[in-house]
Design brief:
The complex is a heterodimer of chains A (147) and B (80). With 147 residues, chain A is α+β, with helices and mostly antiparallel strands. Chain A contains four helices and eight strands, in the order βαββαβββαββα. Chain A has a single domain (2-144), classed as Aldehyde Oxidoreductase, domain 3 (Alpha-Beta Complex). In chain A, helix 2 (52-69) packs antiparallel against helix 3 (100-117) and helix 3 (100-117) runs antiparallel to helix 4 (137-144). Chain B has a five-stranded mixed beta sheet with strand order 2-1-7-4-5. In chain B, strands 3-6 form a two-stranded antiparallel ribbon. Chain B is globular, with a radius of gyration of 11 Å. The chains are: A alpha+beta (147), B alpha+beta (80).
Chain lengths: 147, 80
């Protein structure tokens, strides 16, 4: 079972995780990752843009792939779009499974793909000036782990 | 009779707007030729991908857009 959403407003990680846990009472464990806007280097704001016809369908397909690769009870993806401040949550991924390794690996896999292969474009504001963030080589190296 | 172009990421800044309409039919050489200057140069990059009505094209040169179609111009993603 997958639960994948794009959010225009604040990501309530604790509430979402509690609901996900309640939805999978038979799971032996739940692994999760919460990504936040890094509060460093004078970043005043971060904006994520997306393209409706591709972004959510791509995230859905990613969740399906995680469910295909690991024996999961469920997988959850929440991803923010729009303008965020340092410290704000951007992304929450969780996986529920009978045993821990499947859940941990599925979260790692899903995060690596969201970071490098999902249809998001990011820009940041420093000293009042917006600039686009270019892809990072490390993200592609992270992706290669799963080939 | 128009094709809607949607510019994502920094391409929207170069285009000066998130969307533009251009006359149909439209193929890839005509699309690049429609935007001389920095935008056309950016579009010509191998790293820019195209989606026609929500499907990413494996080969940009295969673009054939008709009236009412939406073509998205997708620069490299910068990660979630």
């Amino acid at each position: 079972m997958k639960d994948v959403r794009l959010l225009e407003t604040a990501l309530a990680a604790e509430t979402t995780l509690a609901q996900f846990g309640a939805a999978h009472p038979a799971a032996g464990g739940i692994a999760s990752f919460l990504g936040k806007v890094r509060p460093d280097g004078g970043v005043e704001a971060l904006e994520l843009s997306h393209y409706d016809p591709l972004t959510l369908p791509g995230m859905d397909a990613l969740a399906d792939e995680a469910l295909r690769r690991w024996p999961l009870d469920g997988v959850l993806i929440r991803h923010r779009v729009g303008v965020m401040a340092p410290g704000d949550p951007i992304v929450l991924v969780a996986a529920a499974s009978r045993h821990r390794r499947a859940a941990i690996e599925a979260v790692d896999f899903t995060m690596d793909h969201l970071k490098s292969d999902a249809w998001f474009w990011k820009r940041e504001k420093r000293a009042g000036i917006w600039s686009w963030i270019e892809p990072r080589g490390e993200d592609h190296a992270d992706l290669a782990r799963w080939k | 009779m128009a094709v809607t172009l949607v510019f994502l990421g920094k391409l929207a800044d170069l285009a000066g707007a998130p969307e533009r309409e251009v006359p149909a039919p439209l193929d890839w050489p005509a699309l690049v030729a429609a935007f001389p200057g920095p935008l056309g140069d950016a579009l010509a990059s191998d790293k820019v991908k195209l989606a026609l009505n929500g499907s990413v094209l494996a080969d940009k040169a295969a673009l054939r857009a008709e009236d009412g179609d939406e073509v998205a111009l997708l620069p490299p993603v910068s990660g979630g």
